[in-house]
Amino acid sequence: MNIEHFEAIGHFLAYYRSDLFYINEFKKYQTGYISDKDYISRNQGSFYTFLVEFRVVRNFAAGQVQSLLEETTRFIELNSLPNVDEFALKLSQTDLTRKKIVTSMASKILFLNNPCSIIPMDSRGRRTLGQKVNIYNIYNQNVYEYITKNENNIREILDYVKPITNIIHQEFPLLKNIDLIAKNRIIDKLLWTSGK
Fold first, then answer.
1. Which contacts qualify for 54-61: CB closer than 8 Å, 24 or more apart?
2. Distance between CA 46 and CA 53 in Å, rounded?
3. Pick from 164, 168, 193: nearest CA to 178
4. How far apart are the first and last CA of the chain?
5. Is the pTM of this model over 0.90?
6. Average pLDDT over residues 99-107
7. Which of 15, 27, 154, 157 is 20 to 30 A off residue 33, Cα-Cα?
8. Does the pLDDT value for residue 196 go beyond 70?
9. CB–CB of 139/131 below 8 Å?
10. How confident is the model at residue 195 (pLDDT cuts 50, 70, 90)?
11. Is residue 18 pLDDT above 90, yes or no?
12. In what helix (H) or strand (E) does residue 33 lie, and over which residues does it extend?
């Protein structure tokens, strides 16, 4: 492992538990365990705090968290395999995003729903992959190629953090495919660290 790998591990360990908490809270919201009102509050693990931590609040109009959550819920319910680019386009057709196509934000929100398939896209990840266009489907293809080229490094990092992730995973017994989520979060941090 090199310095960038250790830096990625540091970022991963700093945020992994809170990432799982956000995913878990979203699942609770989807199943009705958490009300809309509570989920848009400023409580720990809420949709609002997720949007703040993932730095996407600047992408939509102030006071629109409830509307954004409603659009998100409706889109997920109508699409069995939600498409990030389609969701970004859908949001641009509302007043929520000031008519802008916010693909990064769309990827981060849909990541909550499907963390096993969606690795959030941002400018640093795109820079690492040498991608100029802001299209998630292309990003996803580029990430797949990155994973293929770096599979040994990714596996080595996952093995390195496994004693810690095993402890963290005990807090989230209802999350499925949690090892795949860990792998995707490591990949996200590697892309982010390399793109600075």
1. 54/108, 54/120, 56/102, 56/104, 56/105, 56/108, 56/109, 59/97, 59/100, 59/102, 59/104, 59/105, 60/91, 60/96, 60/97, 60/98, 60/102, 60/105, 61/95, 61/96, 61/97, 61/98
2. 11
3. 168
4. 18
5. yes
6. 92
7. 15
8. no
9. yes
10. low
11. yes
12. none
d(CA 47, CA 37): 10
How far is 108 from 91, CA to CA, in rounded Å? 13
Q: Is the pLDDT of residue 176 over 70?
A: yes
* Residue entry with tokens 């100029």: 132
Host domain of residue 175: 3-194
Q: What DSSP string describes 56-118? A: -GGGS-TT-HHHHHHHHHHHHHH-SS--HHHHHHHHHTSTTTTT---HHHHHHHHHHH-TTT-
User: Which tokens go with 114?
Assistant: 């499907």
Q: Are 182 and 153 in contact (CB under 8 A)?
A: no
Indicate the number of domains in the chain.
Answer: 1
Query: What is the token pair recorded at 25?
Result: 């809270």
- How many residues are recorded in the chain? 196
* 42/159 Cα distance (integer angstroms): 35
